[in-house]
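Structure in, sequence out. Go:
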């Protein structure tokens, strides 16, 4: 992800990037810190942002409750965006699912299938877990039983998420396929452009989309 963000920044004349661990830059010129690392790197980056009052954006997945402990205190000091997926496509996928579930009068069983490259360490993916939370928090009354999540690690696939709803009448599928890491890098950079205008607190990627990034 770091390389994808660097590649996108080369296309933009108004954004400059630096490695926060190098500490060879003027903190006053930093608008936000973008973190796509590992759980322990997430904690280090978050602490750095709190210490220096820098807005924090993270797409790191595989976070445990312990890794997220600092967020409760940090969101009272700086603006924070934590999102396992920063693509507009996933946001649109969730919107389509919401419209579908709101339009039906019967309960449905639900299965999520997620496929990623063989080097991805966390399973299920952060995006799959985010979709589970979305369904449980917003449409639990429509979901019959537990949500089944199947994970596969194949080749160099950037990310496939398929949500299957089954009723007595048939099966309805919603799917998003990521063709490259660029979509996540673009989403993170769009959020970085506007996070300074946000109030202190914790935000979702949908919150930023509502401001028409």
């Amino acid at each position: 992800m770091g390389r994808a963000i660097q590649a996108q920044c080369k296309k933009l004349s108004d954004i400059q990037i630096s490695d926060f661990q190098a500490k060879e830059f003027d903190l006053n010129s930093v608008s936000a810190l973008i973190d796509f690392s590992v759980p322990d790197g997430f904690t280090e980056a978050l602490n750095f942002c709190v210490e220096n009052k820098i807005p924090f954006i993270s797409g790191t997945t595989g976070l445990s409750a312990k890794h997220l402990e600092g967020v409760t205190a940090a969101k009272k000091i700086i603006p924070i965006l934590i999102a396992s997926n920063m693509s507009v496509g996933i946001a649109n996928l969730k919107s389509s699912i919401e419209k579908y579930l709101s339009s039906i009068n019967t309960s449905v069983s639900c299965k999520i299938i997620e496929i990623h490259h063989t080097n991805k360490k966390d399973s299920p993916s952060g995006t799959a877990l985010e979709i589970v939370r979305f369904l449980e928090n917003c449409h639990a009354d429509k979901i019959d039983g537990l949500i089944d999540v199947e994970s596969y690690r194949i080749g160099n696939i950037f990310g496939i998420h398929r949500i299957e709803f089954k009723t007595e009448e048939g099966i309805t599928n919603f799917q998003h396929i990521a063709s490259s890491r660029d979509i996540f890098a673009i989403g993170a950079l769009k959020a970085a452009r506007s996070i300074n205008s946000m109030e202190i607190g914790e935000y979702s990627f949908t919150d930023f989309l509502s401001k028409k990034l």
